[in-house]
Design brief:
Layout: H1 6-13, H2 31-39, H3 41-57, H4 63-88, H5 94-99
Helix pairs in contact: 2-3, 3-4
Length: 101
């Protein structure tokens, strides 16, 4: 029985022809990306917003950091607006008032 070690595997991988799995040989197409962007327009808009925020914030913040900051501020703004509406409209939001008619 032959025992396979990690070093023998590492030595043999360079000898195997993996050219058929090389994705650089396939034609590049943005069709999938374009179709997804057309189907999910809000994602494209969100990405543009995050990229603009990242540009303003500078290189200190990553794309995910900028997205998290936008989400946090969005949550705070929505929460504060709801609290304000409840104070002004007898413990109801504008949405609740509209739907009550």
């Amino acid at each position: 029985m032959k025992i396979t070690t990690i070093s023998s595997i590492n030595n043999n991988t360079s000898k195997i022809d993996n050219s058929r799995f090389d994705i650089s040989k396939f034609p590049k197409s943005n069709d999938l990306i374009n179709v997804l962007n057309q189907m999910f327009l809000e994602q494209t808009y969100e990405n543009k917003t995050v990229l603009e925020a990242k540009r303003i914030l500078g290189e200190k913040y990553s794309f995910e950091d900028a997205r998290s900051l936008i989400a946090a501020f969005g949550y705070l703004i929505d929460d504060w607006l709801e609290e304000y509406e409840r104070k002004v409209f007898n413990n109801k939001t504008v949405k609740e008032l509209i739907h009550s008619f």
